[in-house]
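Title: Prediction job returns without error message
Component: structure pipeline
Severity: low
Priority: P3
Assignee: unassigned

Description:
Job completed but the reporter wants confirmation the result is attached to the right record. Sequence as submitted:
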Amino acid sequence: MAKLLNLHRAARLVGVTRGALQKKIQDGELDAFDGMVSLDELHRAYPDAALEDNTVLEQVEQIKESAFGRRIMEHTLPDKEVLAARLHDLSKELVQTKTLLKHTQDMLSGISAMLDVWGKQPGERALAAATLQDWLHAQRMQTQPAADSASALMIRDSFLRVISAQVKVLPSGVDFFVEGNDTILEAALRAGIPLAYGCSSGSCGTCKARVLSGEVKQVRSHEYVMPSAQQALGYALMCSCTAVSDLVLEASVAQSPQDLPLQQLNGEVRAMDQPTDEVAVIHIKTPLRDRLRFLAGQRAVLTLGGSLAMEMPIASCPCEDRHLEFHVRRLPGNHFSDYVFNQLKAGDSVSIRGPGGDFVLDTHSSRPIIFIAFWTGFAPVKSLMEHAMALDQADSIHLLWIATNESGLYLPGLARAWADALDNFTYTPILVGGDLDATASRQENVALNQVGPVLASIATLLQSDIYIAGPSLIVSAMRKLLQDLGVQETRIFADYEG
């Protein structure tokens, strides 16, 4: 029987998104069987994949790390015990495969010998035997080259299984890979999967999950004492364990903002950047045992100087663990803004309450995504884009970043890096002049005459999910324009400033 892979593993093997595979299946260019794809079918659809020199793992990880603008993480093998266990499983599979292959070869040789005997007998049996013998020979000659040319994919699949393990979470059905020495929780967050967790340091027990199949190994110490009854049922702490083999877990995954509790914690300003005179970027580090759980695109209330509070979009991805990022506009006369630009410094304490808001990604959709950010509306859009890249299922991503001048596009290097690193990512900066906080008629003019033609030129517009963030008047004008262009209202998601 041909080896079957789920779409996540198959996409990873040939270096494309799950969305790209799903589109090929929908278009009839790739056959699937109950959501699984055979290696032979995958090779047929992507014949050049086996000819590339570098491994798919290197391609995918380099794209993700450079695109996110995060630290460059050196890929490491699992620890020796995990590595030995995975090699042992592969060795067992190799022995079983060789045994089955020998049995099949012996059976075919026996059939061939019987056909030779029958072929020497007179009558119709000899003719049928000769015909069948010719067919067997032709099949062997036909399938051998195909097997040889596809062997590179099989080698890569075995390699990926040594350095990583796949985890499926029930009942949600989401899946992700655990690589190197990552814990299961670290791998899930990096992949954009919001597993339930609290401290992520082994103290609270919130991240415990039941292991339904597969093997885990503790790689981090923890203070939490697992009740003996739950130990007997196979529960383990995801923040302290890694995956030895492919796993099936029973665990809670946040599916909507309503699944997350309101949290209150204190953080510390790790760094302050001011990419332009008009925007400040605050980097906040949360305590080791007190992390903020949120969905990409959500907001939090920051309190500075003991009493100055403002609700702001979180610009970082949930996969950034303890790092929270906020983008603050210079608003003369606004006490919060004045404090950020004139007094806030690294080491200062910050109170954080959240998360809030429902400007979140539709994680069940593999449609193309268009992000439209007006000025600091880039903050929540950045969070959503990094989440979308981590999920790796959108067919394509297009960012339109609109500002009145060059300084309004305050992180252009990041946007260009995404465009350079990802084949399915397009970045379109748009300068409109004037004031994005002006009158409603001004906003309608910007939307209709300066952004409208760009949107109308996007071939996938009517098939896309569209996320807009920025000042309230311009966002409202954009919603109206998109509906006039024929976009379904249910596919438009908006975040309003002010």
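Comment from assignee: result matches the submitted record. The first helix runs from residue 7 to 14.
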